[in-house]
Structures are given as structure tokens and as C-alpha cells.
Write a structure and sequence with these properties.
alpha/beta; Urease, subunit C, domain 1; TIM Barrel; 2 domains; eight-stranded mixed β-sheet; eight-stranded parallel β-sheet; 17 helices; globular
């Protein structure tokens, strides 16, 4: 055992020595969201996982011991931040299915972190996690930098209602107990440990960087769910702000975003696609426009997460699993399992909810997609505080693949009305500022060297993300081709 530990320690030391090697990126164009214009002909030195120097003139003797990258014709940008992911599950695979197919599951779990990196996401924020789930994720040898929010549902409310009663408090240890709910929680629960103040204190001690709460009446077979009291969420916001933590709220409906504005939450973790009892169509009504103006006026963060709706629609697209980009995100064995009768379980369950008869992709969530597009267009025209998040996976659908789902979300946002510059800022600086990630989001001296080398300027075109030249993670230079799920074995 001691020998094995010594070998492991030696390996870590060797890896650290390699990763600590200086990297010089020469004659590159820096595109960073805090800059008004690109900085051309720059040389960037990375040392000890950070950006150590940015200069126009370099003495070649200074970088003799480092790795040199020729940046001519390339653009150096911050790595992308996806501020809305869920990392505890394999998309489209239930726990018993994972146990029944351990080899497929093992390959999937080993690939998922690399898939995020392949598509340029060097930082992730898991919005409902625990120290235990984060420890499992962080055991992966290569992964994006990852942070987490503590999820604070109420007993019986969304999303804990989707879990068996015996399991839900394991997944949601930071649940809130409101007055009159003592009978709804496990025996022996001390309500004093589940007040907003106590829950936030535990999250902070556990390393959470944010708090997530929920306002969701339900959908499908799970309707009429309880939602938190306004006084509870206001107290949660006060406690979180005293602890220096922003508060996000699951809120995709009109009444949820009205509630969130009243409660003072910082970020809406979804755009507005459920308009409630409004006239048919996707034209903004005065009531919806007033909500959006409230979000704008209070400068709340706003994550549209349009791809959530396509994650339901695309399970009915016969060509979805044949997309060559999907093979970059999922191992071949997992795609083949999705194509099997067992792997189509989510498709089959969703089809039952939709009713009898064949279902075409356009039959799914058409009204909601039209409405979120209208809302995003309005918010983009008024320079909303967009935060990029993909909600991967939003449900137990296979159509929310790691990394690729974020890439698709970027396409949806551009189609809905964001400019490439707005999208770039949302996925870098705005996310970093909103979530207190001061070391990330820009290309500046002293910042962590989570960077991308691109062939195009991402403030001008999202084609820039289609073919990433290099991914740099804490100063370690990665070849995207080697990160893909279909990369040749080495």
C-alpha cells in the first residue's frame, strides 16, 4: 500500500511539474469581454496556471524553457462558463439501467468531463449538488473547473418530488422546512436545522458558491405541487446575501418570475416560456412585457435555457442520434444503447404523455419555443443581463448531451436574437461576475489560465466555436481532437 501511494505521489509530482511549465502564446489576437477592441499581435505568458504577462514585444530568450504556441491567425479568449449543469447523472440513463450496463456507464462517466472541454467549457456550475456528488465528479483526472450551488426545495415540492421519499433528502440535504411542514419531513428532523439561515450556513461551510431555490407548480403527471412562501424565500435571500452568495431560482413561468422579483432573487434559472392564462400566440402581452421590464429594471441575471425544450422535442427526431457532433459528446456504446428498445424509455414515456398517434418533433413544445424566442428577442434588444446556462441535462432525456447541449444552446440564442458579442459576454464575464468567480471570465494578467484558441472572433460570429484550435485548462494545453468521444485510442 505504501509503495502504491509513493508511486501515486510521484505521478502527481511529475504531472504537476509538466503542468507548471510556462506556456507562451505568440502573435495572437486577444478577444476579451472587458476590452472595447481586440488586442492584436500580443504575446501571452502563462505561468503556474495563471496569465502572468501580456505584452507586445518579447525577448525570445525569455521563453526558451516554455511551450511556445504560434498564435498567428488565432484568437485567444476566456474559456466558456456553463452556469447551469447537473453532473450526478448520465443523460437518459436511470440508476438501475446504469447498474445493468456498467461498462457503458463507466465509459460515459469517463467521457462526460472531456465532452464539456471539447466544446470549450472550461468552467461549470452544478446548480443542485452536494459535497458528496462533487467529490465523485472531482475524482475524474481531467475535468473542467467545477463549482456548485446548494439546492433548497421545500418538502414535496419541485424537484424533490421526482425522487422516492426515502431518497429525496439524501439528494436535497439543504431542504427548507416552513411553518406547518414538520409532519412532511423524515422523523427526527430538527426544523431549526432547516431554516433559511441554517441551510445557507451549511451550504457556505460545504463550499457552495450560490443558492438555488424553486418555484414550480409542476407539469405532466406532477401538477399542483407546493411552492415556497414569499417570506421564506425573502429570508433565504437575506441569509444568502449576508453570506456573500447569490440566489438563483428555477422560474420559467410568469407567476414564478413575478414571485422571484418580489423575493429579490438574483438570477432566474430559465427564461420565460410558460405564460399561464394568456391569449394564444407568441406576441408579448402587456403582462409578460411588464415582467420582463421588471427583470431588466432590477438587472436580474437571466438564463434562457432554450435547449431545455428541444431536449424534449429531439427525442422524436429520428436523425438526432445520427448527428456526427453527438459522437463527439457520447461514446459509441452509449449511442447504440440509446437506439435500443431499453434506451428509448424516455421517448416512450413522453409519447404516452402526449397521447395517441405518431408524434413529430414540431408537435412538441411549439408554443413554448415560440414564446421563449419572443421573450429572448425583447430582452436582447434591451441589453438584458444574460447569463449562459444550458441546463444539461434538464431531464432524463438523452437529447441533452454534455458540451454539445451548450453548443446547441448558443445556436438557439443567436437564432432568438442575441448578437455574438452578447452571447460571448454571457458565457464569460457576466457569468463570472454574477457567481463571484473573480479569477475567470477575462484574459487579464493574474487571471486563471482557462482559455480558448479560436480561428474566428467570437464577438463577430458563433462559427468561432465550431472548431476550437486548443483548449487551455489551468495552463495545461489540450488538443480538442483528443477530448472527443470518438477520438482514436492512444
Amino acid at each position: 500500500m505504501k509503495t502504491r501511494l509513493a508511486i501515486l505521489a510521484m505521478g502527481i509530482a511529475i504531472c504537476s511539474a509538466v503542468d507548471a511549465r510556462d506556456v507562451w502564446i505568440e502573435d495572437v489576437t486577444i478577444v476579451s469581454p472587458e476590452r472595447g477592441q481586440p488586442l492584436r499581435g500580443a504575446t501571452v505568458k502563462v505561468h503556474d496556471q495563471r496569465i502572468a504577462e501580456i505584452s507586445r514585444h518579447l525577448n525570445p530568450a525569455k521563453r526558451a524553457a516554455g511551450e511556445v504556441i504560434d498564435g498567428r491567425g488565432l484568437y485567444l479568449t476566456p474559456g466558456l462558463i456553463d452556469s447551469h449543469v447537473h453532473l450526478f447523472q448520465i443523460p437518459g440513463m436511470l440508476p438501475d439501467q446504469e447498474q445493468a450496463h456498467p461498462d457503458i456507464a463507466r465509459a460515459a462517466r469517463a467521457q462526460i468531463p472531456k465532452s464539456y472541454l471539447y466544446f470549450g467549457f472550461t468552467t461549470l456550475v452544478d446548480l443542485i449538488a452536494t459535497p458528496r456528488s462533487m467529490a465523485i465528479w472531482n475524482a475524474q483526472p481531467l475535468r473542467p473547473d467545477t463549482y456548485f450551488c446548494g439546492g433548497a426545495p421545500i418538502p414535496g415540492g419541485y424537484p424533490s418530488n421526482f425522487f422516492p421519499p426515502a431518497m429525496r433528502y439524501e439528494f436535497f440535504p439543504y431542504f427548507l422546512v416552513e411553518p406547518g411542514q414538520a409532519e412532511a419531513v423524515p422523523p427526527g428532523t430538527d426544523p431549526a436545522e432547516h431554516t433559511p439561515e441554517a441551510v445557507v450556513a451549511r451550504m457556505k461551510a460545504d463550499g457552495a458558491i450560490c443558492v438555488k431555490t424553486f418555484f414550480e407548480h409542476g407539469f405532466g403527471a406532477n401538477r399542483n405541487l407546493p411552492v415556497p412562501q414569499l417570506a421564506t424565500v425573502r429570508a433565504l435571500v437575506r441569509a444568502a446575501h449576508r453570506a456573500g452568495l447569490p440566489v438563483l431560482m428555477h422560474a420559467n413561468s410568469a407567476d414564478a418570475q413575478i414571485f422571484g422579483l418580489d423575493a429579490g432573487v438574483d438570477i432566474f434559472a430559465h427564461g420565460l416560456w410558460n405564460w399561464g392564462d394568456t391569449p394564444p400566440g407568441a406576441d408579448l402581452t402587456p403582462a409578460i412585457r411588464k415582467i420582463l421590464q421588471g427583470v431588466l429594471g432590477h438587472r436580474r441575471g437571466w438564463q434562457p435555457t432554450i435547449e431545455v425544450l428541444y431536449g424534449e422535442r429531439n427525442v422524436f427526431d429520428d436523425q438526432y442520434l445520427a448527428n456526427p457532433l453527438l459522437a463527439k459528446a457520447y461514446p459509441k456504446s452509449l449511442i447504440e444503447w440509446y437506439q435500443s428498445a431499453e434506451g428509448q424509455w424516455y421517448h416512450d414515456q413522453f409519447a404516452k404523455r402526449m397521447g395517441n398517434g405518431p408524434i413529430k418533433p414540431e408537435d412538441v413544445d411549439g408554443v413554448e419555443i415560440a414564446r421563449i424566442n419572443s421573450a429572448v428577442k425583447f430582452m436582447a434588444q434591451h441589453n438584458a443581463r444574460f447569463l449562459f446556462g444550458s441546463d444539461t441535462p434538464s431531464d432524463e432525456t438523452f437529447a441533452n448531451p454534455p458540451g454539445f447541449n451548450g453548443w446547441l444552446e448558443m445556436q438557439r440564442l443567436i437564432d432568438a436574437g442575441l448578437t455574438p458579442a452578447q452571447l460571448f459576454k454571457a458565457a464569460t464575464l457576466s457569468n463570472a461576475e454574477a457567481l463571484g468567480l473573480a479569477e475567470l471570465g477575462t484574459v487579464q494578467v493574474g487571471k486563471r489560465a482557462n482559455l480558448l484558441l479560436l480561428h474566428d472572433d467570437p464577438t463577430q460570429t458563433i462559427r468561432a466555436y465550431e472548431q476550437i484550435d486548443r483548449v487551455i485548462l489551468r495552463g495545461r494545453v489540450l488538443d480538442p481532437a483528443a477530448l472527443a468521444a470518438d477520438a482514436p485510442p492512444h
